[in-house]
Design a protein that fits this description.
The protein is of the alpha+beta class and 162 residues long. It has two domains: 38 residues, Arc Repressor Mutant (Orthogonal Bundle); 79 residues, Alpha-Beta Plaits. Helices cover 35% and strands 27% of the residues. It is built from four helices and six strands, in the order ααβαββαβββ. It has a four-stranded antiparallel sheet. The protein has a two-stranded antiparallel ribbon with strand order 5-6. It is flat. The relative contact order is 0.16.
Length: 162
């Protein structure tokens, strides 16, 4: 997937008037300079979802956002144990306490789409998790540690000489 185009291409499209109105309202409410910027963002989201569905081995980066209630039944311990089983995929975790004995946790993740979905499914099965959303992108984190191969060249994630 191409990350940033070097040149722009024009696209002409027809939309029902009501849909165009809603699009314009959204552009205004977000304070965006143009429809094109919003449409590009929506297309990028759709492409990332498509990659996850059609290419389960494709590497993706993203976030998993969870909302869960209290610590009845050891919810936090179960979340930590589940994350430990997906140590290669979970890069970091941020936790905050919310009102009404709720917590919000955001995981920064990277890995094959199929593994990220498995992680989400495992987290959803934990009693007390009320909301969970995975948001992905095809852009990846740079290698945190590169390894030198037998020829003395450094290799990145995909085994390509850096």
């Amino acid at each position: 997937m191409i990350s940033e185009p070097t040149s722009l291409a024009r696209l002409s499209m027809s939309l029902p008037a009501e849909l165009l109105h809603h699009l314009d309202v959204m552009v205004d409410e977000r304070g965006l300079p143009s429809r094109s910027q919003l449409i590009s963002e929506l297309i990028r989201h759709a492409l990332a979802e498509h990659e996850a569905l059609t290419r389960p081995e494709e590497m993706l980066a993203g976030t998993i956002t969870l909302v869960y209630r209290g610590d009845h039944g050891g919810v936090r311990q179960q979340l930590a144990t589940t994350q430990l089983h997906y140590l290669k995929e979970v890069i970091s975790s941020q936790h905050v306490f919310l009102e009404d004995d709720q917590s919000l946790e955001v995981l920064l993740v990277q890995g094959p789409a199929v593994r990220l979905e498995e992680l989400c499914d495992a987290l959803r099965r934990i009693r007390g998790v009320h909301q969970l959303r995975l948001v992905t992108t095809t852009a990846l984190l740079p290698p945190l540690h590169e390894q030198e191969d037998s020829t003395g060249k450094y290799r990145g994630r995909r085994g390509v000489a850096a």
